[in-house]
Amino acid sequence: MELYLLFPVFISLMVIGAFAGFLAGLLGVGGGIVLVPSFFYAFKYLGFDGPQLMQVCLGTSLATIVVTSIRSTQSHNKKGAVDWDILRGWAPAIGLGAIIGVALAANLESLVLQLIFGILGGCIGLYLTFGNHSWALAEKLPIGLLRWILGSALGGLSVLLGIGGGSLGVPFMSIHRVDIHRAVATAAGFGLAIAVPSVFLWAFVKIESPILPWTLGAINIPAFLLIIPMTFMFAPLGANVAHRMDARPLRRLFGVFLLIVATNMVRTALWG
Hints:
Elements: H1 3-26, H2 32-45, H3 53-78, H4 84-105, H5 110-130, H6 144-161, H7 166-174, H8 180-202, E1 215-216, E2 219-220, H9 221-242, H10 248-271
Antiparallel strand pairs: 1-2
Helix pairs in contact: 1-2, 1-9, 2-3, 3-8, 3-9, 4-6, 4-8, 5-10, 6-8, 7-8
């Protein structure tokens, strides 16, 4: 492919990286929910399609989330918003679930992963659009065996979506009466528990189709390098804005956007 055709893709990925980093800090939804479909359509535009395309999108997205989560956690921690007791208690179960998630995702076809992303992404979009932080399921987070079961589920589902801890972790903590600012900040740490073990494993997954240049396992290095500087710069900006304004209107707007993206992902999987 001619270099001039790659230029708009590079610029688009940089803009998407900035948007994803800002969202990770602002809404706690995790940039992966934007990156996965963005990678999917960018790689397809470049002519790289195949039964393992979604694996590359998931692996590359989670690689960027390692950096985004570090930056976002640092920014929130400076404001004293990270609940380290919650993070220490839940990180082992979430990490275990992430490992299980990679083992499962590596053996699924791209079309199946597209459907999973579309359905679960649509559920997240519905929550962002219509959900309310006042909803409560219990007065405190589970402990013991239930924590291991639910934490593993959070980690595994997040890997299947290629996302960090925010999209599922924030609503989960919110319905257990964790203050929303603490939930957003702590979920950034959840992202590390998900991304670090899963990225290590994704680097060793054999991708036979599509064959993208400069790819380590399921992690495309050029896309990773384009996204990282932008998420690194914009995640703290989003975190600062989150502590200064009511983000509910933006949450609803992004929820609608995510519903459209999820619906299109399902349509592409079913009908091409």
